[in-house]
Specification:
Blueprint: H1 2-10, E1 19-21, H2 23-27, H3 30-42, E2 48-52, E3 57-58, E4 64-65, E5 70-74, H4 75-78, H5 82-85, H6 126-143, E6 144-148, E7 163-164, E8 170-171, E9 177-181, E10 187-189, E11 194-195
Parallel strand pairs: 1-10
Antiparallel strand pairs: 2-5, 3-4, 6-9, 7-8, 10-11
Length: 196
């Protein structure tokens, strides 16, 4: 699906010329945006977070916390909760982020998706991060064919390489892939006159 979406940008650019992209082109990649959100739901780059209380308090569910206590929450576990995502919560399904017209929509409950935290402490680089991820994904997919080595699963089944838990979520042994260079010119970002 991502390649199909990408091909809509490439039809006007023969392979020998650079693929000229604008910010609006990147914005229009709804399926890629959804696939990134879905990847981070299952594999959040910041998998666990912690807060300490400045005073005695009572959490919305009635849990009592004393001054100086730590309250941790697992973004990784939240991304796999049936109560938040439904019975297909363990499936990789970018469509859950798209409305009937295929346009990206935010998660129903923004506090159920804390990949970039939420509320007043929402990550200030969120939009920039999506922009960078989309740009890199487009550039790589345009120029290379990538095949996961060792059977990474089918589109219906979630690819689940082993991860090691730390402050950031790292793949334990990396993800071996076979890379084949395609005979195409590189991607250019028009506004920045930048070759990716
Ligand atoms: C996929 C990429 C990224 C992820 C998953 C991410 C995630 C997060 C998370 C979870 C927090 C909350 C930390 C906390 O309060 O415990 C945060 C805060 C923040 N992030 Fe990001 N981030 C990403 C990229 C970026 C980028 C590219 C920038 C800047 C260029 C950025 C700038 C910030 C800043 C300034 C805060 C502090 C916001 C505040 O506390 O008011 N982040 N990010």
């Amino acid at each position: 699906m991502i390649l199909k979406e990408l091909s809509m940008l490439t039809t006007s650019s023969p392979d020998i010329r650079p693929l000229n992209l604008t910010f609006d082109d990147l914005k229009s990649l709804n399926y890629l945006h959804a696939a990134l959100s879905e990847s981070m739901r299952l594999f959040p780059p910041v998998p666990i977070s912690s807060r300490s209380t400045v005073d005695d308090d009572i959490l919305p569910d009635g849990t009592y916390v004393r001054k100086g206590w730590f309250v941790d929450y697992s973004v990784y576990a939240m991304g796999r909760m049936e109560s938040l995502w439904g019975c297909d919560c363990r499936e990789f399904k970018p469509e859950r982020w798209l409305n009937d017209n295929g346009v990206y929509q935010q998660a129903y409950d923004p506090f159920g998706y804390l990949v970039f935290n939420g509320g007043l402490r929402l990550c200030m680089g969120k939009d920039l991060a999506y922009f960078q991820m989309k740009l890199v994904a487009v550039a790589v997919m345009h120029e290379f064919e990538i095949e996961v080595v060792g059977g990474g699963g089918t589109p219906e089944r979630m690819v689940d390489p082993p991860y090691s838990l730390s402050l950031l979520l790292n793949m334990k042994n990396g993800l071996p892939v076979r890379v084949k260079k395609r005979q195409v010119a590189p991607v250019m970002l028009q506004e920045l006159r930048m070759e990716i």
